[in-house]
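Justification of resources, computational component.

The compute hours requested in this renewal are based largely on the per-chain cost of generating structure records like the one below. Each record pairs the submitted sequence with a full structure-token output. That output is archived, and it is also reused by downstream analysis tasks.
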Amino acid sequence: MRRLGSVQQKIPCVFVTEVKEEQSRKRESQQFRVVATEQVNPVALEADIDCALATEKLDGTCCYVTLYKGQPYLWARLDRKPNKQAEKRFKKYQHTHRSAKGFTWNVEEDFRTVPETWIPAHQVKHHNGYPMPDDLGHIPGWVPVEKDNKQYCWHSSVLDYEVGVALVLRPKANDEDMLEIVAVLLADLMEQTLELIGTNVNGNPYDLVELSVVSVSVARDGLGSKKQPVHFLVSHGSVKFRTPPPLDFKQLRSWFHECPESRVEGIVWHCSDGTLLKVHRHHLGLKWPDGESCFGNRSVGIHLDGTVEDNNRRDLFASFSALNGCSFSRLQDVHFDP
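The structure output for this chain reads:
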């Protein structure tokens, strides 16, 4: 099996999907829903899905580690999207034909500009030297995360390019039920993709909100806060299921309802030939987020000994280093002193 965690393209659903013309539960601006049918995707069968590794789909933003300026760098996901006129033409075609197949793009004129440092993702098809869009009309790609770019400040918070390390959350080697926060050399993450998760990413879905009917008060218990945001990277494919659910539509839906291990955004299957397949709760008509997540409820230890040598440093590395050697019963309990 090739190295896990190469998420360069949109991952197809493990089931055959269909489009329903009703409000999306995932995106407010989307007036249609993509739902799973009970038929297993032929791609999954061809890739021997029954022998695949089932891992937790984490809810954050995708990142990639590769070279930039001769050194290992973190790159942020940036899909090149069509301009307003082209998008309007594309949507009209989709509505008329109920499909994107056959639509013709003028790649030179139809797409918004991107930074000069932008690169297309792996396996993006090219025509006449130009990267071509996928079925959604997007060209997946990456831009390097540089310290002076405010747009990627939360990406930057988990990086120290001078030392060449990143803050990574991963299962502990000798106890996969426990997580650990460590500083990992970017050189050791080369050509991997990872998920940036935390306080200011994707609305912080790992922030548990509970309403008390009696006191009408709101209690927040999640990853960090506005004053003390918490972020880290998680390698794709690193969080495995102890007991993977069966690949049967009805049984899988029941698993999401009943199993304690199912309080997750979804599942990603890593097949031995490198094929990736997924199922999201929204594919099954289920809510996300929905109460306390399994991920946020796992115990965690912090191991950053010797990472920070400057006592005047005031960043995320310093905050975690101050907790070096500490363990918490839940990831949600990791908070820094005021």
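Residues 209-221 have pLDDT under 50 and may be disordered. DSSP finds six helices and 20 strands in the chain.
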